[in-house]
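Whiteboard transcription, Tuesday session. T.W. wrote the structure tokens on the left side:
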């Protein structure tokens, strides 16, 4: 085994261990204490477990890898670190599925990605409530609890189960979200909204779902998209992403699918945009990203 590959293996061991510790923490906090629930900008739920998990993960990374950069949803959500950069970047969602977590649903994950020059090399998504550890190393495969993962081989759209999600603030984008959903529902067997983007994507990797589409932040999908890719899924965008941001870390208009369904789904989702005037289309595809950059 080469030095580079040994190095990624040891980063994976470290990351899995960290995700397990964070998982134990959030399971314990939900079981043993009354959760303190607050709202960011009056709309987005955050609990004290999100903050505690973020702290545990970011402190451990800063201690083990003091020269690396960290993008973490709760402690450092500054998207300017998302660039083609020589300094390795860790991307962390300390609890993906916070609404599920706060409502005692099991679809909850800790998500940690390790990236270099805008490309994710090591990925871990851990659901501590179901004991499911999804992980991947670039070009070496993806696993669920050490079992290799392969995405589904469903070829017919009308047999496909597709997951999606919606942003916390739906006010301005609701008509567009509904248009996409309407078009998708017209063609597929059914749609799921399970509440954790990271797990939705891992479920595509595992074949429990055939595809997933949504607009999310880098921490929601960075780790899971490598897991899906390594399991044979196709990862892309249904609207062309900007060239100056690494595509693997650009979460707007994401489409992740088994390879056979990618093109037909891309066409359907893209056709929902074509009904829009050109300027409005462009604004819709970039607004969320710009909003995140400046907020
Ligand atoms: C959310 C979940 C959800 C997705 C939202 C995300 P959070 O992350 O991934 O499935 O639809 O867009 O913000 O807030 O639970 O970390
Ligand atoms: Ca998230
Ligand atoms: Ca989160």
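and on the right, the sequence the group agreed on:
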């Amino acid at each position: 085994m080469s030095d580079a590959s040994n190095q990624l293996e040891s980063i994976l061991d470290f990351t899995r261990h960290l995700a397990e510790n964070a998982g134990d923490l959030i399971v314990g906090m939900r079981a043993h204490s009354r959760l303190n629930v607050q709202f960011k900008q009056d709309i987005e739920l955050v609990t004290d477990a999100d903050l505690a998990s973020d702290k545990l993960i970011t402190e451990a990374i800063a201690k083990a890898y003091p020269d690396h950069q960290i993008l973490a949803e709760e402690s450092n959500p500054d998207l300017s670190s998302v660039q083609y950069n020589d300094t390795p970047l860790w991307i962390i969602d300390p609890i993906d599925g916070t609404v599920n977590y706060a409502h005692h649903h099991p679809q909850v994950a800790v998500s940690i990605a390790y990236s270099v020059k805008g490309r994710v090399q090591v990925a871990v998504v851990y659901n501590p409530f179901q004991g499911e550890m999804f992980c991947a190393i670039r070009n070496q495969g993806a696993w669920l609890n050490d079992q290799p993962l392969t995405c589904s081989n469903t070829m017919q759209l009308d047999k496909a189960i597709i997951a999606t999600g919606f942003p916390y603030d739906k006010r301005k984008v609701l008509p567009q979200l509904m248009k996409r959903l309407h078009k998708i529902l017209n063609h597929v067997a059914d749609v799921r909204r399970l509440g954790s983007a990271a797990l939705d994507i891992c479920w595509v990797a595992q074949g429990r779902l055939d595809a997933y589409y949504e607009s999310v932040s880098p921490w929601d999908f960075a780790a899971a998209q490598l897991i899906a890719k390594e399991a044979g899924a196709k990862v892309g965008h249904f609207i062309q992403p900007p060239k100056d941001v690494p595509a693997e870390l650009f979460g707007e208009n994401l489409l992740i699918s088994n390879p056979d369904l990618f093109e037909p789904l891309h066409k359907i989702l893209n056709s929902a945009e074509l009904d829009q005037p050109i300027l409005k289309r462009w604004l819709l595809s970039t607004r969320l990203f710009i909003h995140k950059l400046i907020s």
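Someone added at the bottom: The chain has a mean pLDDT of 92.
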